Amino acid sequence: MTTDILIRGGTVISESGRQRADLLCHEGRIAAVERDLEAPAGASVIDAGGCFVMPGGIDPHTHMQLPMMGTVVADDFFTGTAAGAAGGTTTILDFVGPDKGQSPLDALAAWREKAAKASIDYGFHMTVSWWGEGFAAEMPALVHDHGVTSFKFFLAYKGGLMLPDEEILAGFLRCRDLGALPQVHAENGELIAHLQRKLRAEGVRAPAGHPLSRPSQCEGEATLRAITMAELLKMPLYVVHVSAAEAAEAIQKAQARGVGVIGETLPGFLAIDASVYENPDFDIAAGHVMSPPYRPDGHPQALWKAVEAGTLSITGTDHCCFTRAQKRLGEDDFTKIPNGCGGVEDRMNILWALGVEGGHISPERFVALTSANAAKTFNLWPRKGTLSIGADADIAILDPAKSKTISASTQHQNTDFSVWEGRRLKGSVVHTVAGGRHLWADGDLRAEAGGGRYLPRAPFGSVYENLRE
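Structure tokens predicted for D-hydantoinase/dihydropyrimidinase:
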């Protein structure tokens, strides 16, 4: 149940501008945005003096409660979404992962059951973990009956999720016919498998073998290959978690040719480099193992240029966190370290500190990167990503003067490790309102299991007219 909330005294930021205004939330929606609003009887009031009032974050790339590499990620849909709320995120898009041969509709039903405990709103992408007539036959129901309108294809993980080009092409064509958006995890799985075998034969077992087996060229090649498929098939493409300069360059050149390719990156790829894998402490080195990996110095700088230019227009987290004990499953073999890092709680604060305070982006671009562009790309606009009248009352209030130090000991993510350990930030989300519910109140987390709603999304149409250019 929601009550009226009046947010008073802040500066309201959108992707296109800012204004000094109060903001009234009524029945879970934005009811008014103007100066000097009066609080209705019974309304609660949030003092936003000196703060920026922005659309709540949309994290379009999370993995809650995901079985992986002999274990299950540490965050379930409640702990993960509660952590997100503590960092200003009010919507996530997670990934349904069917087992090999499993009906994707059955998998969606299982993921819907898992996600019923979510504390903020959520939607789903579908991982194309196998391909065949059975999968293709269920895609119309996924798109039109259940609102799952984006499908992820893997060019990596040979022997697992990786599909051959023939099947990726067939899947892309099916997406085109249905008005669904294909996504790709772009790394060359054949080369990675070869390099893993070579490194292990040479006796490499430590986490440092992970980035050596997944060099940036593997990402650049696979990104270009996926773009080439989409370009010749005359359809858009979404490239997830871009980490490499070569991949960003391929996206930039395609966009310049008019290809509708959208690039997503993660805050960690903008600030952390591959030197972390050389740390002699296994827990620290393994704690950073994710795919694609953090890249050598030079790549973060190239990615910032791509963000500034608009080549990379969306930020996610690929939130997929494990505990130190879980990472130790690969203590004797880097290929067995569970792949993934946390981040859903930190994305907004980190990107503000790195981007806005760091001089790379304006507050308006921050809103675009954390909320508005994802809302438009995934057909959630204008319900999400804006503070216009009638939009969902999903709001992050950020105090640019408040400092925060990130630590695993104080985070709400359900793990004992943080890639941002000890980093002190200037600027912090102090209040989060999700669907008109005040979930984060300057250190007081009020998230409740089951408070979130499922977000079915409309298809994009045969010519993808609703996608961002």
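The CA atoms of residues 401 and 427 lie 6 Å apart.
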